[in-house]
Amino acid sequence: MLVISGNRSRQRCDGMSRRSFVRIGSMLGATGFGLPDLLRAESASSRGSSQKAIINIHLDGGPSQMDLIDPKPNAPAEQRSPFAPINTNLPGLQLTELMPRVATIANELIFLRSLVGSAARHDAFQCQSGFSQRALQSIGGRPAMGSVVAKMFGRPDDQAPAFVDLLQGRGKVRNSARPGFLGPVYQPFRPDISQMFPRELEAAMKGELNRLGVNGKGIQMGLAKGLSMGRLEERADLLQNLDTLKRELDRGSEQIEAMDEFTRQAMNIITSGRLANAMNLSKEDPRIVERYTPKMKVRELAAVTAEGPMAARKLLMARRLIEAGVRVVSVSISDFDTHRNNNARMAQLGPIFDHALWALITDLKERGMLDDVTVVAWGEFGRTPKVNQNGGRDHLPKVAMGILAGGGMNGGQVIGATDKLAGEAIERPVHYQDVMATLYHNLGIDPKAAQLTDSTGRPLYLVEHGEVIREAVG
User: Fold this and answer.
1) 464 to each of 129, 137, 146, 243, 379, how far by Cα in Å?
2) C or N: which end of the chain has fewer Cβ atoms within 10 Å?
3) Are strands 53-60 and 373-378 parallel, antiparallel or unpaired?
């Protein structure tokens, strides 16, 4: 439901007070910036538009690499995955039996078996930025990729915000998709998907949410109660006339015209219903919705925080948002934090992820979108080969897994290798920043040349030591 509220006044970051008649929801993220501000910020660089896009899938909790894409059938029985290896359509490549659908499209994918450089923190920030949450923390921290894209590619005539964040769980509680030193006007559009995709929070996360003073919800998609489109337009006309008079006294006409342009654009986006339609899966072909819906029973031993089969449909929503003009969509599937009952939980989560990724890649390819849309699926770290006393696998920052697809990359390959236990990278390590550099490259941004200016006026490159993955794009 998209809420549009009126009669609000606030202080802009440049110090000018103004009345904002259009606003999506009662807040945008934690700070409550209105859509006009977001759009105005997006066009600051006026560098043009791009049809390229990113779907960033966070496997919340850190997925077990040996239970998904890096089986080690010859490892000791007490350490190897209980899930048997299966062949794929890529000669010589085996995945586990939890990934049968992905096995049929392995020729479209790049499997990263040697992802290194984990910050060893339970959130999605490193998968959003390539950096530790401590990087430049004193000036607000590094920005998420979506916020960078909003700054570099935003235009006044965009029909959708550049960055949409659908993260749930820890990634949402810890505001992983944040703008950092770019400032709150570059934060993502964050819709409320909790009714469509319930995701129970851990007790500790609920406490953290309360301490942060955040209600945990996102933007409501609909008109505020009692506000019709006709009344909205009347309010807009009235407030525009009143505010224009005040602005004439406060500012020069050029800035006023620019402000009005963004307000009109925000109004157009809201009234067109384009974003709301993209998030309304009832408007999708039922056969496609069915394709994104795995047929499976939810296992009794799965943790309460683990999502059910309907979570696969989040990737359908991501595809629809990209079609609506969004450039970066962040989405999550929870909860791979398998300290207990690893096997039972992976037996539920593995097939959900397998089905969702297969459906997305197949769908994008059929629609002719795969060359333009880059898909990445990864988590904050990997899992230990050793099984603990609770039948779980613990955190393993030394190595993690990832999967890349689309974006014009060279699919059908495995990059990197681990030791006999899948516990350490022994060949072609790929850093988180290497992945981010590759994503920027696929968007047409040179990560070694493009710069941002931080809040102190210092120019910074998008990555510090990351390199484009040559095997992927060469």
Assistant:
1) 11, 15, 18, 45, 21
2) C
3) parallel
Count CB atoms within 10 A of the CB of residue 288: 17
Which residues of the chain, if any, have pLDDT below 50?
A: 1-35, 37-49, 220-224, 227, 229, 232, 235, 239, 244-245, 247-249, 251-252, 254-256, 258-259, 261-262, 265
pTM of the model: 0.83
Helix H or strand E segment including 136: none
State the Cα–Cα distance between residues 314 and 357, nearest whole angstrom. Answer: 11
> What pLDDT does 215 receive?
53
Give the residue among 101, 107, 111, 103 at the shortest CA–CA distance from 63.
111
Report DSSP letters for 255-286, one per residue. HHHHHHHHHHHHHHHHHHTHHHHHT-GGGS-H
CB-CB neighbours of 188 under 10 Å: 29
Q: 417: left (phi > 0), else alpha (psi -120 to 50), else beta?
A: beta
Q: What's the pLDDT at 271?
A: 61
- First vs last Cα of the chain: how many Å apart? 44
Say whether 197 sits in a helix, a strand or coil: coil
Crossing angle, helix 35-42 and helix 253-272, to 10 degrees?
Answer: 110
Q: How far apart are CA 348 and CA 262, in angstroms?
A: 46
User: Residue 266's pLDDT is what?
Assistant: 56
Assign residue 391 a region: left if phi > 0, alpha if psi is -120 to 50, beta otherwise? left
Separation between Cα atoms, residue 59 and residue 332, nearest integer Å = 6
Query: What CATH number was assigned to the domain covering residues 46-216+273-473?
Result: 3.40.720.10
Is residue 407 within 8 Å of 52, Cβ to Cβ?
A: yes
Inter-CA distances, 21 with 7, 67, 312, 403, Å: 6, 51, 36, 43
Q: Are 400 and 65 in contact (CB under 8 A)?
A: yes
Please state at what angle helix 313-323 crosses helix 342-366, rounded to 10 degrees. Answer: 30
The one-letter amino acid code at 166 reads: L
SS3 category, 471? helix
pLDDT of residue 227: 46
User: Is residue 4 within 8 Å of 270, Cβ to Cβ?
Assistant: yes
* Cis amide bond preceding 394, omega within 30: no
Q: 3-class SS at 205?
A: helix
Instruction: Determine the pLDDT at residue 47.
Output: 37
> DSSP state, 427?
E
Whether the CB-CB separation of 407 and 51 falls below 8 Å is answered with no
DSSP string, 63-120: --GGGTT---TTS-TTTS-SSPEEE-SSTT-EEETT-HHHHTTGGGEEEEEEEE----
